[in-house]
Amino acid sequence: MNKQDIYTTVGVAFSLMIAFCGWILTNTLLDKQETVLLSVTGSIHAPSVLGTTAGTGNDANSNSTPKIKTELITDETKLEEGVMAKILANWNAPKSHARPHEPVEGQLSMEQAITAAKNGLSHFNTHGIIPPELLKDEFTRTNASLWENQPAIKENQSDTRVKVSMELPPEYSYWAITFGNEKMSVQLTLNAVTGAIWRADIFSYQAGTIFANLDVVEMVEIYAAYLGLNGGDSLSFNETWASKGFAGDIISVTATKNETGVDSTKSYSGISLYLSEFGRSARYMNIVVEK
C-alpha cells in the first residue's frame, strides 16, 4: 500500500468519526432539550384523532373506521358525581380557553352526539318539560362541534413560554349542539363520552307556547333522574327557579323558566336546565377558538 492509499484510508476513517460524533452530540442535545421542556410544561399532548367530524360544525366523510363508542349512554360510561364536579370545575376554570378538536377514542362521533341530543329532547318532551307541539316539525338548522376547555398555563420564571396542550381525559370534552326552526331554538351542551345533556336552553318563537305544565321543582326531579342522580340534598326554589344539590352538595341540578308578561298575561317563552358546581351557575359556553 503506497502513501496515497494510506492517506485516503485515514481521511475516510476520520470523516466517519466526525459524522458519528456529530450524530451522538445532536441526539444528546435533543434529549436534554426534551427533558427541560417536559420539566417546564408537565406534558406534551398529541391526541389520537379518530374522526373528522368535529370543530367546524359540518359533517365530514372518512375512509377510516374510528374506534369510538357504538352505544350512547351505558353503565360503564356513567360518571361518578365527584368526576362530574371536576369536569364542571374545568369547564368553569377562569382564564381558560375552549379548543375545538376531533373525537378521540371513547368519545361520541358527531352523528352519535346529535342522536343523543335528540333522544334527550324526546325524553324531556315525554315527561312534560317541552310542549309537544314544539317537536312536531323537523329542525331546519343543526350545528355540532366538539370542544375541550384548556386551563390557563402558568408562566414559568424565565421569559421562555412554551404553549402546549394539557392532556385531558375524554370525558372532559363536550359537544355544543344547536337545533332550530321557525318555532324554536335549542342550545345544548353534551358530555362527549356519556352523551348526557349537561345544559339545555330551549326558547320558543311561537306565540302562545306554554312551558308551564310542570313547576320548576318537578322539572328538576325529571332532569336529575335523566342524569342518573338519585336522592339529593338541599333544595331551593321559587316560582321560576329551582336548584337541588347532590352528592353532599358538590354538584347541583337547576331548572329555570324564562318569564314574559305580567299578572294574568304571564307566560314562559323558554326554559333552561343545567348541571353545575353547587352554588355556582353553569357558565354558558361562549366559545372563543384558540388561535
Structure description:
The protein has 291 residues and is of the alpha+beta class. The chain has two domains: 1-42; 45-277, no CATH class. Helix content is 27%, strand content 23%. It has four helices and nine strands; from the N terminus they run ααβαββββαββββ. It has helices at 3-41, 81-91, 110-126, 216-226; strands at 97-100, 141-150, 174-180, 184-191, 197-204, 235-237, 241-246, 251-260, 267-277. It has a nine-stranded antiparallel sheet. Strand 4 (184-191) and strand 5 form a beta hairpin. The longest helix is centred in the N-terminal third of the chain and has 39 residues, at 3-41. The chain starts with a helix and ends in a 14-residue tail after the last strand. Residues 32-73, 157-163 and 282-291 have low confidence and may be disordered.
Q: Averaged pLDDT, please? A: 76
Order of helices and strands: HHEHEEEEHEEEE
Poorly predicted runs of 5 or more residues: 32-73, 157-163, 282-291
Oligomer: single chain
Strand order of the largest sheet: 1-2-3-4-5-9-8-7-6
Q: What is the SS-derived class?
A: alpha+beta
The number of distinct β-strands equals 9
- Tertiary shape: elongated
Rg calc: 27 Å
**How many structural domains does the protein architecture include?**
2
The percentage of residues in β strands lies in 15-25%
Q: Report, as a whole number of angstroms, the end-to-end distance.
A: 66 Å
Biggest β-sheet, characterized? 9 strands, antiparallel
Helix residue percentage: 25-40%
